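User: Please predict the structure of the protein below. I'd like the answer in structure-token form so I can feed it into my own downstream comparison script.

Assistant: Understood. Taking the following sequence of 290 residues as input:
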Amino acid sequence: MRGRLTPNAPLAPLVWFKSGGSADWLFEPKDVQDLSDFLAGLDPAVPVMALGLGSNMIVRDGGYPGVVVRLGKAFAQVSASDETRLVCGGGASGILVSSTARDAGIAGVEFLRSIPGTVGGFVRMNGGAYGREVKDILVECEVVLRSGEQRTLVLADLGYSYRHSALPDGCVVTRATFRGHSGDPVAIQAEMDRIAAAREESQPLRSKTGGSTFKNPDGHKAWALIDAAGCRGLQIGDAQVSEKHCNFLLNLGAATSADIEALGDEVIARVKAHSGVTLEWEIQRVGEAA
């Protein structure tokens, strides 16, 4: 093992909500082979979870009973492999991917500018915004399975649906290849600016939040259902439904993960009672209750 292994690692500083417990172990591999060797030698009964920027996650207050894998700078490189393709490390941010694409004159991936997360999370969750999803641009991805086996998966292997993939538990996405199309860097930047301005206007970007909380049900917008059910501004402890965008939950200061999750469950119950629609969590909820 050449990476860094930390016992009893606090996860709250690593996630956007700034709440939750610790991981039994936090592993930051030096490179792909280091990750592969580590997982191959790890007891198969130990749970493994990859962590990107921590934007789409509630870590419960009892922490994560296993190993959290966090990809560092070695996994955050992005480069254009030809006139329309980008090779992206699993730890690279959406902003870096879209900016690199702009510089290379590759259009079609601007929407990644608006998703707070890393390539690994985008691939796993079929991340999307502004009418585009990862399934529209993914060529293939490289993963390390829980067993330590390294594999390359093509688009058809991912079994994509709305905010879901068929990637097995415990596997880590280490690289992805995205395909766009030739474009003018000035026009690409203009589209990125438009997206950034739209997010700034409509979303609570400077708050402790987890991003979009619930999936949009067929034929509905989650925020509209939440608003109609009277949940705008609803609070449990220091957890609040955002008044700016109802599909965002906020930690106003000292909210526990239990507060945030309870608030989400209350929103689900009120929307169901009001409209008959059952919202589904988009945010991952991981770990154990305190």
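That's the full token string. Residues 86 and 111 are 15 Å apart (CA to CA).
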